[in-house]
UniProtKB/TrEMBL annotation:
A Pfam family that the UniProt record links to this protein: Pyridoxal_deC
Domain of life where this protein originates: Bacteria
GO MF entry, a single one: carboxy-lyase activity
Organism: Lutimaribacter saemankumensis
Name of the protein this chain belongs to: Glutamate or tyrosine decarboxylase
Keywords recorded for this protein, A-Z: Decarboxylase, Lyase, Pyridoxal phosphate
GO biological process, one term: carboxylic acid metabolic process
Length: 445
């Protein structure tokens, strides 16, 4: 291939691959972070011209301006939001996958990729204790996964009861913001159940708010802000009694299925109808990837899929990922997880997730021993909420910003029961508990 109207020297490709290799080897710089528009515009504004520029010049914009002005989520000191911790295997493979240019929307376009992705889905299905009928697809993120699952849920329920004036989803106060966004897109109401003080929704609290127009219960399998896992077994009973769909939002938390110590928290999962888990969160895969799985894949296929005359030749007898979510074209975004799992083995995954739990336990225990810090919650999975007793909100924000800028620690405040608190969420197996505790000591002075 010559490049036709788009010549590109081999030397430039090699330079980019060399940078890629070094970046994967060394990881992100913890001092990097967002820059203001006024800083970026003079460099990146006008970077697209009629005549074009040399690859070195433009790639230089990427390495010297774009990358340094992004948050280093993959660094072991990045403990806010839900960060990410892709393995070097997954990152290396992702670069190769990009070069392969595979269309993985259907079997015709990406049979081998789709088959391998389904191996990774099968690992999750087996951990959930779901039958052979289970299946699904990797979508871009948890928001799209939740939307696709809840659309399937409503179709399923609509086939069983007369359509109410308004449909509703039942979830807890700790449900992720994406559930509210999904309800808006689907034009359905949300019935929001008060969670217990730990952030957990009980089956009784859900039963007390249940209405006949509800088509799905969404259970947190690891609430983002507090790590709570709802009473999945109790909610499965409730769903069974009322013939409702039970969806588990485990975008963050369901990775913990791999750890035998945390696994019992998800008892009842075997009776849920759908789940999501984001490999780009706690399953050591790069952005972006969400595993959306139906216990009975046929329920996903009944709700999704696109028909068009130009698609009539597509092989309908094989597994077509586009039949299971709201999308058609897709990259094989489950393959970096597959590659990393296949290289390292599932035991290494179980060990790495158990290690993050132990790091969270060590940090929480250290916080309880420090005068001037109150441990409020956790670890729940690997989320910890705590508060410095003698700091104002402004001081907390300034402390967090100082440590973010220096690259020492990304530990940002959140709110818990209306009060500003610090939140840590550990997903990186190389996070060093002693390092974190030494920095937290500066909160007590
Ligand atoms: C529990 C939970 N659900 C859903 C989402 C949405 O996922 P995404 O950002 O991948 O769309 C997130 C986080 O982002 C989450 O933590």
């Amino acid at each position: 291939m010559t490049g036709g109207p788009f010549p590109f020297p081999r030397r430039a490709t090699e330079a980019m691959l060399a940078w890629t290799g070094a970046r994967i080897e060394h990881g992100p710089d913890p001092k990097h972070g967002a820059q203001a528009f006024d800083v970026l515009e003079p460099v990146l504004g006008g970077s697209i011209t009629r005549e074009g520029r040399t690859p070195d010049e433009v790639f230089g914009l990427f390495t010297d301006t774009i990358v340094p002005s992004t948050r280093p989520f993959g660094h072991p000191t990045s403990l806010s939001f839900v960060a990410s911790a892709p393995t070097r295997a997954a990152l290396s493979f992702d670069a190769a996958l990009g070069a392969a240019g595979i269309f993985a929307g259907n079997w015709d376009g990406g049979a081998g990729a789709v088959h391998a992705e389904n191996q990774a889905l099968r690992w999750i299905v087996d951990m959930a204790g779901w039958p052979d009928s289970a299946g699904g697809v990797f979508v871009a993120g948890g928001t799209l996964g939740n939307l696709s699952a809840l659309h399937a849920a409503r179709e399923w329920r609509a086939a069983r009861i007369a359509r109410p004036d308004r449909w509703a989803i039942l979830c807890s106060t700790e449900a992720h913001s994406s559930i509210r966004a999904v309800a808006r897109v689907m034009d359905v109401d949300l019935i929001v159940v008060d969670a217990h003080e730990t952030g957990r929704m009980s089956a009784q609290a859900a039963a007390d708010r249940l209405e006949s127009r509800v088509f799905a219960i969404v259970a947190n399998a690891g609430a983002t802000n507090c790590g709570a896992v709802d009473d999945i077994a109790g909610l499965a009973d409730l769903a069974e009694t009322h013939d409702l769909w039970l969806h588990l939002d485990g975008a963050y938390g369901l990775a913990a299925l791999a750890d035998p110590v945390m696994r019992p928290q998800f008892d009842g999962i075997e009776r849920a109808h759908s789940l999501i888990v984001d490999p780009h969160k706690w399953l050591f895969a790069p952005y972006d990837s969400c595993a959306l799985i139906y216990r009975d894949a046929a329920h996903g296929a009944a709700a999704h899929g696109q028909q068009a005359v130009y698609l009539d030749t597509v092989d309908k007898n094989h597994f077509n990922p586009s039949d299971y979510a709201l999308h058609l074209t897709r990259r094989a975004r489950g393959l970096p997880l597959w590659f990393s799992l296949a290289v390292h083995g599932t035991d290494a995954y179980a060990d790495a997730i158990a290690r993050t739990r132990q790091v969270a336990e060590t940090i929480a225990a250290g916080i309880t021993k420090m005068q001037g810090l109150d441990l409020l919650l956790g670890p729940q999975l690997t989320v910890i909420l705590f508060r410095p007793t003698a700091m104002t909100e402004d001081e907390m924000i300034a402390w967090a910003e100082g440590h973010r800028r220096s690259g020492a620690l990304l530990c940002l405040p959140t709110r818990w029961r209306g009060e500003m608190v610090f939140r840590l969420c550990i997903v990186h197996p190389e996070t060093d508990a002693e390092w974190v505790l030494n920095i937290l000591k500066t909160l007590t002075r």
